[in-house]
Amino acid sequence: MTEEVVVATNVKEIPANPIAPSPDFEARELKTREKLRLVSEKLATLEAQAELDKKDLSDKIESSEKVKKSLERKVIEAELKAYAISEGITDIDFVKLMDASALQIAENGSIDGLSKVISDFKTAKPNLFRTEKKTSSSSNISLPATDTSSNTTFNALKASEDDYEAQKIKLLSGR
């Protein structure tokens, strides 16, 4: 009978419902669920912000591509005008008649097909070009010749006032 008593005392030490969670476990589980909810909310917020940033970046890329294409067209137009002038076009407004749609900026910065467009236009409309090519946009005004016969230098610091005035008049008159 002593064995039965020992078993009976051991039964009292086992809780009435071994499957039921302890109060400490329930508190930890509530804290964990709250942390999970907060992390989920933060994740949703970050995902929404990432979508907004992605759309904003996409809009900026699209805008910069438009600006780039616009600037490339302006560079091509400027190069076309400069090359047409060097080829002797009589009026810069005639450049608008040229088909520049095929012109592209190459990797090295040059304009692919520029000479072909000009030569095709020149062949089709030769009366719009001068026979001689213009090599410079500046006028060909000749500068006054400098007097090289007198190689002596004038020292204004050591000259008298009369010599200084005479040299000044000489230089200003171009003699």
Plain-language structure description:
Helix content is 57%, strand content 2%. With 175 residues, the chain is mainly α. A two-stranded antiparallel sheet has the order 1-2. β1 and β2 (111-112) form a beta hairpin. The longest helix is centred in the first third of the chain and has 64 residues, at 23-86.
List the helices and strands and how they pair.
Elements lengths: L1 H12 L9 H64 L17 E2 L5 E2 L1 H11 L36 H13 L2
Antiparallel strand pairs: 1-2
Topology as a string of helices (H) and strands (E): HHEEHH
**What is the approximate shape?**
elongated
> Any idea what the radius of gyration is?
46 Å
Average pLDDT, rounded to a whole number, is 81
Features:
single chain; 175 residues; mainly alpha; two-stranded antiparallel ribbon; 2 strands; 2% strand; elongated
Short description:
The chain has helices at residues 2-13, 23-86, 114-124, 161-173, and strands at residues 104-105, 111-112. It is mostly helical and 175 residues long. The chain has a two-stranded antiparallel ribbon with strand order 1-2.
